[in-house]
Amino acid sequence: AIGAGILATGGLGAVAIGAALATTGLGAAIGSMMAGPVTGVITTGSPNTFINLLPAAMVGLSTGECVMHAGAPIPVTTGAATVFINGRPAARVSDLMACGANIRTGSLNVLIGGPRQSPVCSALRDEQATFERFRVDAQAASAAYDPPESRTPPDGYRNATDDDLRTLGLKKSMLEHPVDPRTTKPTDFRAAVFINNTTNAPIVAFKGTSSGEDWKTNAAQGLGHHTFYYDQAQKIATNVRDSAGGESAHFTGHSLGGGMASAAASATGLPATTFNPAGLNAKTVPHPVNADIDEIHVKGEVLHGAQSTLPIPEAAATRTWALDPPGFISAATDPRWKVSAAGLLRASLIGAGIGDVLLHFMDNVDASLRQRQRQIQRSLVRNGCL
């Protein structure tokens, strides 16, 4: 169970009380803003922060089961403006669920003060956390292009060791130039594995297009033909899923690598984040399952444009995130030539097409992600969330 105690009656009184009342925990009752019967309980909380021995509740990561919504997990949406648990606003009595219900019970002796976090601030903080995750995944997708001996892991991660790979059911020979059994020759396929420094959760990143062999794979997979690359990605994903630490894994990749990451997710049900990804032919994954796939592309980039207009497979996605390309001034001052050149070329009629091609590369994905993060930060300041 999660901590219970103070009972709030709802309405404006509950809002006022909520500024001083305690944080909630598992088992805390939820119900209407007006006085009435309890209609559900908080069921999930912090994995490592406890109040009176019960997991603390916070915005976004805590959910409740409400009988009005057929038992579906309903997230907490409002919380304290100044107190955070696991990086999320702490939830208290009278704070709201996504279904409109409010939290009605909480700890009797742990008080969290301050005003309620506004829905605008909660939404912005959720977006901030999402884009920080995307930024780290983008670092992993970029690092997959590099050979193991010169590979820099993403922030908060380390390169997987041989022991890490064994735990995940993998070997180096599966990741770096594996042999295609049909040709008996090494391929240009590459995947990189990174391990979170805190949680040990793995990221598997697939390399994108960088050779003629990669281009042949792009064409063959798009036409629905069998390819070693996509089979290998699914084999790696299945081994990871079935391993001891596989339940916390996710996949990522850019371009061809994004296509393989989406295939890995579709084959296993594990999540993926893809950047300007190749489309996924319906024949590529023989027995697809539902998977959580965030597809991120830069507006105007050439591959997404082709997928939108030509009879070729579209990117697999649960959610699609379209990023504005770097602004002219931002692009012109960026030290990476693909970013600055894309900005300058797209500003001219003659070079616009070349600029769209340059938007496909990871340098421009990274610049667009960072631009969006700066916009979110400004919105947090403008709305008084900081």
UniProtKB/TrEMBL annotation:
- InterPro entries reported for this sequence: AB_hydrolase_fold (IPR029058), PAAR_motif (IPR008727)
Q: Where is this region: Disordered?
A: 140-160
Concerning Pfam families, the annotation shows: PAAR_motif, Phospholipase-like
Q: What is this protein called?
A: PAAR domain-containing protein
